[in-house]
Amino acid sequence: MDRLRQLTSHFSSSPKGLAALSKKSPDDVVITMAVRSALTKAKKGGFKDTRSDELLTGMFKAAIAKMQIDPALIQDICVGTVLPPGAPYEARSAALAAGIPQTTPVQVINRFCSSGLMAVTTVANQIRVGQIDIGLAVGVESMTTKSSPDSGSPKLSDDIMGHDVAKDCVQPMGWTSENVAQDFNVSREDMDQFAALSHQRASEAQRTGKFTEIVPVEGFSKSASGERTRIIVDKDDGIRHDTTPAALGKIRSAFPQWGGGKTTGGNASQITDGAAAVLLMRRKKAEELGLPILAKYVTTSVAGLAPRIMGIGPTYAIPMALEQTGLTIEDVDLFEINEAFASMYVYSVRKLGLDIEKVNVNGGAIAFGHPLDKYSFQLFAYTRC
Q: H/E element holding 79?
């Protein structure tokens, strides 16, 4: 009954405002570990010869080595992935191969590019309602070994394809970037300026050793003869060091057939392989285990909008999160916004009135790449720096 009263109180009077949210409670959901693999170029980088199940197994092993607890204490695992053929089987078998006990269940979730964040949210909500005390959220994407969503639209019914809005759900992402640039007057020059800033910040952060969240992950390298050997991958390889807006301005349009053709390979995120893991638990349990508390999980907001401009989701979701928590823009010291395309990033920063000195301070997806689901909760690790 005491536990029931605690839960009822928690959900009926959620604290709001910076002062209230800063207070500590034994029932807080906290993060005790947030790690990621290096991000490497799809088909070219460090994980190009590593299968998605092998990458996931490597991430599980790295997380186990870092989490400072017996993996048998993990009561559920949620894996976020966007390109999921075989994902439920891969996730469960990779966990077992890495040393997770048979008694720990595994689930898979897909909410497009926020799948990793939804894995975190799923585990956090399980902890909040008392189903579990400890859970692991993992994200993985091998864009080398799984086809891109833009490689071919799914075959949908005539009713869907004849609907003015529904048909837009299967259009290429590059088209949505051009729509954002055209609808909201985002110039090619501004897109290249923001993209260069992403690379410059990432380059400086890498040079000064800020990416302490990276853990070495085992992968494979294949020789010309086809022989595969085990390797360790531990460094991002997509950053364009010393790039400038002028240099990016010379890159030709990637999608000249749509809109103004402002999106290029230089001001859009790269196709990338990578994985990440976040360990969450009740504060009381973390303190009992003597674990470092890196952060307190507060909320997740999800918003829908027209598919043709899907990239500006942050302009809807961030105000929702602020309202839910009673916070203001000024209360937030750091923002991490996914840089899928510079068009949506530029518009989101401007629409929300954000101080660019507080946004993606160590670079973003334009510099590192965007392994779809994995990038969304890689942001948890980034904000530690």
A: strand 76-80
pTM here is 0.91
Please check whether residue 263 lies inside any domain of the structure. Answer: no
Give the strand pairing for 134-142 and 76-80.
Answer: parallel
d(CA 306, CA 316): 11
**274: closest CA among 141, 149, 365?**
141
Beta strands in 170-316 (DSSP E): 217-222, 228-233, 272-282, 295-297
Amino acid at position 250, single letter: K
Please enumerate in sequence order all residues whose Cβ is within 8 A of that of 352, keeping only pairs 6 or more positions apart, or say none.
314, 315, 318, 319, 329
Q: Read off the pLDDT of residues 249-286 as tens digits, 9 standing for 90 and up.
A: 999 999 999 878 999 999 999 999 999 999 999 999 99
Structural domain includes residue 42: yes
Which two tokens mark 240? 């364009």
The answer to whether 69 touches 134, Cβ cutoff 8 Å, is: yes
Tokens of 87: 């994902």
The tally of domains found in the chain comes to 1
Whether residue 301 contacts residue 321, with contact meaning beta carbons closer than 8 Å, is answered with: yes
Range of the domain at 281: 2-146+273-297
- For residue 162, tell me if it sits in a domain: no
| Segment 229-249, tens digit of pLDDT | 999 999 999 999 999 999 999
User: What is the structure's pLDDT at 154?
Assistant: 67
Name the burial class of residue 82, with classes exposed (0-12), middle (13-18) and buried (19+) by CB atoms within 10 angstroms of its CB: buried
Candidates 65, 57, 78; CA nearest to 35 is 65
Q: Tokens 């070994």, residue?
A: 145
* Alpha-carbon separation of residue 215 from 274, 319, 346 (angstroms): 11, 33, 31
Packed helices 115-128 and 373-382: angle between N→C axes, nearest 10 degrees: 60
Asked whether residue 310 is domain-assigned, the answer is: no
CATH number at residue 122: 3.40.47.10
Q: Is 229 exposed, middle or buried (0-12, 13-18, 19+ CB in 10 A)?
A: exposed
